Amino acid sequence: MKILVNAAGYGKIGRVGENDMADECGMIRLNCEALCAVTHLVLPYMSRNSRIIQYASAAAFLPQPGFAVYAATKAFVLSYSRALASELKEREICVTAVCPGPVKTEFFDIAETNAAIPFYKKLVMADPRRVVKKAIRDSMAGRKVSVYGIVMNGFCVLAKLVPHGCLLAAMDALGTNHETRGEVPGANQEAREGGDGAESRETDGRKEI
Length: 209
Hints:
Number of strands: 4
Strand order of the largest sheet: 1-2-3-4
Distance between the termini: 21 Å
CATH topology: Rossmann fold
Largest sheet: 4 strands, parallel
CATH architecture: 3-Layer(aba) Sandwich
Strand content: 5-15%
Number of helices: 8
Shape: globular
Radius of gyration: 18 Å
CATH class: Alpha Beta
């Protein structure tokens, strides 16, 4: 195998405890565990000059209140990919972590089930085709991290230079403190008491680019 692309994943906006526990744990299983498992299974069959492209996110650069579990999974993917790139250097296998900002895909059909993304993220939505082209170019160039767009590259630098506490305060002021759609904190669990507690979800939408 010459190219492995780990692009499956999903996220759900909402404070910790507002989404179903199955959804919160499911993000970890798909975004982290499945990615590791596929990489482990495929790695023995990869030859020199092969490519591994792991889809992380710009959310990996900074904790995300209201998107905490998802951002944490992507921080894992970024760290794992950079370490893997170092381990596979002798085998001449290139590993690239792709870290885009918001991208116009069906990802948000799932992500915005209970809450909407902040307005400023909607302003920087990227074209998925351009993100993919940039990822492929960066992989072929041997880059360890691929970040699409001036805004997200600026955010990456900012997250390295400015204390995260200051950035989190600024994000909170801009509306990152997501409000649940039509509900109050804690209402999700109360509304489901007496029922089976399950909510339907579109697994076909659980992909991101």
